[in-house]
């Protein structure tokens, strides 16, 4: 009996080691995939986005131009979702105040990153001085399904305090990917 129990544990350990190896290989593949996009492709995507945003102020365009722009934007969006793992499911914007050189908008975003869902609510204050436009994020509120980790709660609180969305999305992408791996691995122990 004891040998069969020990053999069962050894088999389970070997199975977990193989799974860890597979997950490590999968992670390395994703890392290589993210570096698969060359700097040139990233720059082309950024330039395309800038052309699209500048083109919106030109006025009426032909339907074929608009269709081409839409396809280009969809391609850029697909690229960004593959690159970051972040997918937005809803967005709403409400203008609270608007003057000639100042605009205050309230944004609500929800989405998911790998297996974690999130919701953001913040105010964006845009100020224009001659040719420069500056934007400041205020009243940031983040809701995540992070009930099991106090570290995530601390990180979310810190991000809300500093209003740093770039830091939030970068960290969320990395954490969410490994959260899925951890959850899958711990299922073997239950």
TrEMBL record:
Residues 6-33 form a coiled coil. GO terms for biological process: CENP-A containing chromatin assembly. One of its GO terms (cellular component) is nucleus. Signal peptide: none annotated. InterPro entries: CENP-P (IPR027801). Keywords: Coiled coil. PANTHER family: CENTROMERE PROTEIN P. This is CENPP protein.
């Amino acid at each position: 009996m004891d040998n069969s129990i020990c053999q069962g544990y050894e088999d389970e350990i070997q199975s977990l080691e193989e799974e860890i190896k597979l997950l490590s290989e999968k992670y390395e593949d994703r890392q290589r995939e993210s570096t698969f996009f060359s700097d040139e492709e990233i720059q082309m995507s950024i330039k395309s986005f800038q052309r699209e945003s500048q083109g919106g102020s030109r006025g009426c365009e032909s339907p074929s131009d608009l269709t081409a722009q839409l396809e280009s934007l969809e391609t850029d969006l697909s690229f960004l979702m593959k690159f970051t793992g972040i997918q937005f499911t809803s967005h709403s914007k409400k203008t609270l105040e608007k003057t000639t050189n100042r605009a205050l908008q309230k944004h609500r975003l929800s989405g998911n990153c790998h297996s974690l869902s999130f919701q953001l609510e913040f105010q964006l204050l845009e100020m224009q001085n001659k040719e420069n436009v500056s934007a400041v994020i205020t009243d940031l509120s983040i809701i995540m399904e992070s009930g099991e980790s106090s570290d995530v709660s601390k990180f979310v609180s810190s991000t809300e305090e500093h209003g740093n969305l770039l830091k939030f999305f970068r960290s969320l992408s990395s954490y969410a990917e490994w959260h899925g791996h951890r959850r899958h691995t711990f299922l073997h122990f239950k």
